[in-house]
Model the fold of this input.
Amino acid sequence: MRLKQIFLVFVAIAARAQNVTVQVNGQFVGAERTLNWIAGNGIMHACTDNSAQSRVDCTPSLNTALIPTHDTIHANENYCASHSGTTAYACSLASTKALTAYSAGMTFVLNVDANCASCTLSIDGVGPVTIKKIDGTTDPGGTLIAGQPQWIFYDGKVFRLMGGASAAGSPVDSRGDLRARRVISAMATLPYQAAMTLDVTAGDFHKIRTAPSAGNAVLGASTGGLPGQHMWIIISNDATSAKTITFGANILSSGPLNGSAGKSATLHFVSDGTAWYEVSRTSGL
Done:
């Protein structure tokens, strides 16, 4: 009987020696003879008995039905550069990511070499699809311009320009000109003194009211402005005496402005990027 008890003790010790101690982040979980891997939340395990190394090898993997891969979502690299020279755009994606079919929700960066009024796009020879503005019905009408990449997405029927304006209330016309109901510029007021300099970065409208006790003055501009920039100046002469204003730095005028007491004048200038050129003036207002 004593030998049997000793044998059972050794069996228990041997069994305990085979237990696997498991920790997670250094925290003890348990010690059992069997460690069981349970798949969950998209993680799967494949294990094999590596008897040559006296071990079991387990490899985790993703369940792509729950966790989609990059290729599952895109099946392509999304840069599409067309060099067809026409508005029948065609491009090829990376050779390892060639597109085989269009799927709703696909997005691409499209760069073309011809302006589009109405156009189509074929990617990897899948077939031509019409390109529309963001509303899905209006042709681009000049909003897709050669050399200016835009994001597009496939809605299941057409490619839509994600940066293109819709037909209703479009701020850009077919030439790329900006359209708006009104643009109101801020007006800068310049104190009157013998030498004055307009800050042409403060706005395009300026107003000067002469001082009764002051004399004539010289008016210049801080810079020659930007090419195509316009500038308007209102000069209001005080009621005491007529003031003469000549023009100095960065302003090319048709001559001095001879004021009239109690009257105002307006002047219009345009810049070529180096100087302001007088366009018109109206006196005696």
Observations:
- The chain has three domains: 20-67, 71-161, 187-282.
- Helices lie at 2-17, 70-73.
